[in-house]
Amino acid sequence: MSVVESRGTVTIETARCKGCELCIPACPPGVLGMSSQRNELGYAYPELVPGCTGCGACLLVCPDFCFEVYQYETPVAHEVGS
Amino acid sequence: MTRRLMEGSEAMAEAAIVAGCRFFAGYPMTPFTEVLESFAEKLPEAGGVCINAESELEAVGMAWGALATGARAATGSTGQGLSLMQESLSEITRAELPLVVFHMARGQGDYFQATRGGGHGDYRQIVLAPADVREAVELTQLAFDLADRWRNPVHIYGDFLLAHTSEAVSVEPLSFDPLPPKGWAVDGSLGGTGRSRNINPIGMQKGVKGIEPESFWKRLQAKHDAMAEREARVDTEQVEDAEVVVVAFGSLARTARYVVRELRREGQRVGLVRPVTLWPFPAEAVAQAAAGARCVAVLEQNAGQMIDDVRLAVLGAAPVAAIGGISSDDAGFGVGPIFDPDNVRRRVESALSNEVAA
Amino acid sequence: MSQDRLPVLPTDAPPSEPARLLGRFKPKLLLHEDHDLCPGCGEPVAIRLLLDVVEELGCAKSCIGVVGIGCYTAFTSAMDVDLVQALHGRAPSVATGAKRMQPDKLIFTLQGDGDMVNEGLQEVIHTAARGESLTCVLINNGVFGETGGHMTSTTVLGQRTKNSLEGRDAAYHGHPILIGDMLAPLGGTAYVARGSVHDAASVVKTKNMLRRAFEAQLEGRGFSFVEILTMCPTGWFVPTAEGPGYLDSVLGAVHATGELKNAERLVTTAELLAAAESAAGERGD
User: Fold this and answer.
1) Do B139 and B44 share a structural domain?
2) What is the pLDDT of residues C142-178, one digit of tens each?
3) How far apart are alpha carbons B105 and B307 in whole angstroms?
4) Which of B176, C44, C51, C213 is the most exposed place for a label (fewest CB within 10 A)?
5) CA Rg, chain B, in Å?
6) What is the ipTM score, two decimals?
7) In whole numbers, what is the pLDDT of chain C averaged over residues?
8) What's the CATH code of the domain at B348?
9) B interface test, pick of C29, C72, C94 with most B CB neighbours within 10 Å
10) In a domain, C23, yes or no
């Protein structure tokens, strides 16, 4: 087991997402990936894994205002399986 | 009440400023140029702004922006320049902005342009046609009032003669009924309230996705129908027992008035209907005058434009004849021999002696 | 680190652990987030910046926007500032009339490339030359988006559009216009810049450009202009995810980003391109 720290996190309004995927390469730590599920509009949407730094790049590039960005008071440690 | 000898262009600009006009934009073109010159000279003194726009399109655009802030604003040109402005004129009407347009035409051939409009869609503008400088001073002030009262453009149809004739006039402010405040005007103040404004010609509402064109256009139609019902203005003279009723507007009506009075003194039964508003056309007054007349003689300086409205008003109750026609000076500015009283007299006499085809 | 091994974290609600909110879903001056522009469209990103800067400058209640006609026109129902809708290409003259009557207000135009550089080329040039105390904002995606993706004056050579399907050809279609280069040398202009929204770094730089442009207006230094390259994957015939790359490598290779004029400093797009190339060379790109 190893630990990945998240210094920040996001709230994602997946219902509004149009699956443009612009947030994926925009994220510097690369912690966003597109879901296998579809939302009601028929689009895949981003999902978050541990490692977010709270930089807000996703919020800046999203054309559909899907992101809210937080910075943890204390970084959160996630235990991740091998 | 001191009267000064003033050229029409200057008198109209002063009348506009007395009426509260604080913005003008225009592009020079004969015979409108002196209107622009007069505004350029007088507006800054009155605390207003006059911009020499780089094109007629920009002139009407600038007036649009000034109007949107709630200012009394105007533009103008001659027929050709107004041709360029047509898209904006029709859209400004739908945006319900109170533009006043000083149209110094090269004669009377722009009647269709003024009354039908060359722009797209259903829209109407009140058209006022002064016969002389004194009346122009009054109608200019009326134009700004009507424009604000209806939130609709008003068009002043003048010409070379009106713009360049000097008369002794005094530009006294007329009084009008109070108008509601312009809460719709943009000044930034509603930003961030959720109720910020959007002055637009398609009925877009803040906070609402999409538009409803049909109900928007129908509401405008109802407004224009109300304007048509209430704002027709006409001047009639000695039509009650007239055998020949002359119908004429603007500067040519001034000559017609003189000739009608002269013929009456000689015992001829002739009268004059002078539309003061070209739109709404005073159809009722024309129809009333036509009842019992032997001939309705339309005197206009063009290939026949107002005669359509006269025929519609008369609806066959009396023969309608064209006694006007194309008549111009050597530069094409519309100062033709037809303005000569002897010329008009011959035309009216031909109607009196049944020499005209109806 | 493979994504497959990392757990997907819940993102449907704010975090339960103590955290500071760094960024909201939408700008305060945007009434609603849902819009019908295409997936991957850059225009909402640019509009977010515009509204954020207006609010950060404290100008929400003293700001008038004059909007042109394009896909972005639909945003006028959501932009919570006083607005005037203008005709295609005609926002600069409308803004001029408004500014002359309300000189103490922050007045901007928001126009696409088809609107400003095609229909309205004359208007923006004259407004800049007059030195009107306005800020004109151009959102440039190199196509007429709203009509379906047709060639505009800013479409670059080789770019495929609905009416240049084989790619814009200089002999047949002529050359693109770099409007910033036409405006920057004019005496009346105080600030002219070109930014883009294809990645987070560009977004940040562009926001600063907007701020500097508005400051130029607020400080009475003359006409200011910010062009923002935006993605239009629909108009470009590219998959949505390739929009930013296309913007950078195709449009950005001609309409280079940077400041063209800032007070006395004046450069051309060609000089910006040369500087970018030599910087890339030094980095060994």
Assistant:
1) yes
2) 999 999 999 999 999 999 999 999 999 999 999 999 9
3) 18
4) B176
5) 21
6) 0.96
7) 96
8) 3.40.50.920
9) C94
10) no
